[in-house]
Design a protein that fits this description.
The protein is globular, with a radius of gyration of 15 Å. It is an all-alpha fold. The termini are far apart.
Length: about 130
């Protein structure tokens, strides 16, 4: 009998999700360079922030205090982020959820991630000279 998948209803599950999600992102040959070469993300510093961010969004924890749009605006100036980047990010997010988690908090995460991808894409438009 298949064991039930955990929900994202507690910090340990959220942290595990973030670790699994970033494994996927960093294995993606299109997205990995954005994180590692353009943003030069130090994973030892970045992952705890991302875990706090998702714990805030899903569980109402108070730990995250950064403004995510400003961080992404700075990155967007270095390397414009296109709709395809957000769609790939969202696909990895959804695939990670589907493979490992289930339940109401998991569905909440899915809705939030979809909104985040759409908001980022709208908030970080491509300059006219590089629009597809």
């Amino acid at each position: 009998m298949e064991q039930a998948k955990p929900d994202l209803d507690a910090r340990p599950q959220v942290e595990h999700f973030v670790d699994l999600f970033y494994q996927r992102l960093l294995a993606d040959e299109s997205l990995s360079p954005i994180f590692l070469e353009v943003a030069r993300v130090d994973l030892a510093q970045h992952l705890p922030h991302i875990k706090d961010y998702w714990c805030k969004l899903l569980l109402g924890e108070e730990g995250y205090r950064r403004h995510t749009m400003n961080v992404h605006r700075q990155l967007h100036h270095k390397r414009p982020l296109a709709g395809s980047d957000f769609q790939r990010w969202l696909a990895h997010f959804q695939d990670t959820l589907d493979a490992h988690f289930a339940g109401p908090y998991t569905e909440k995460a899915r809705r939030i991630a979809t909104a985040i991808a759409a908001n980022m894409e709208r908030g970080l438009p491509l300059p006219p000279e590089i629009e597809p």
